[in-house]
Each structure stands twice: as C-alpha cells, then as structure tokens.
C-alpha cells in the first residue's frame, strides 16, 4: 500500500482514521479524526493531513512529532507512520502565511464540506485549530 491507497481506503469510511500519539509518560493516546492526502504547503510532497485542536493531541505531537494513523474499511486496514509538522495559530510553520485557507484545504482533502466558510473560519480561529501534516516514513496494510 502507498499513500494514495491509504487515502482511498480512508475515503471508504468518510476519511475517518485513528491517530495515535505518545503521551509524556510514553503511553498511547488515540483519537478519531478525518484525514486526507494533499500536497505539503511548503514542499509540495504528498502528505497525510488532518485538522485538530486541544491540549492532548497537539501537546503530544509538539513533544514527540511522530504519529501512526490507521484507516480501516471492513477487515482491510492500512497505517501511515511518519514525522509531523504543525501549522496553526500557536504553531507557525515557515512558508505558511494563510492558515485559514490551509485549514480549509486540509478539511476538504479529508472529505469535508461546509455551507458557510466564514462560519468555518471563525470556528477554526476560536478553537485555535491547527493543521497536522504527516510525512510518511512507512505505509503498510494487511
């Protein structure tokens, strides 16, 4: 499986994936997000991306910028492991100037749509949401 195969698998379940991060004590924190594949906003390389907010996941990723993301459909599954970069109001990423447009791009790459983009932008800003980019080091499946 490659990254585009992973994206196709995730799309079968509306882009829903499980993101695993390491807590400070080394234990694993997992959560479900919508993820998609798009070109990295600086390098142009295809990466896996999702939008998130809150202290747990972002704190874990800031401390240890590595994750495993798993998608499944039926009994088929695939995992992307890789290094992480974060772009958001609390995590400036050199080369990224328009965070609201970037969050929209990641959201739509993950299969999302919205009837009111101004409302979307306001929610993203209020929640201090960030885009997370996973550069694949390993992609594997059953």
TrEMBL record:
Organism: Actinomycetospora corticicola
Gene3D superfamilies per UniProt: Electron Transport, Fmn-binding Protein, Chain A
Record-annotated membrane-spanning stretches: none
GO function terms (MF aspect): coenzyme F420 binding; oxidoreductase activity, acting on the CH-CH group of donors
Gene Ontology, cellular component aspect: cytosol
Sorted UniProt keywords: Oxidoreductase
Top-rank taxon, per record: Bacteria
Matches recorded under InterPro entries: F420-binding_dom_put, F420H2_bilvrd_red/Heme_oxyg, Pyridox_Oxase_N, Split_barrel_FMN-bd
PANTHER family in the record: F420H(2)-DEPENDENT REDUCTASE RV1155, HEME OXYGENASE HI_0854-RELATED
The name this protein goes by in its record: PPOX class probable F420-dependent enzyme
Span of domain Pyridoxamine 5'-phosphate oxidase N-terminal: 12-92
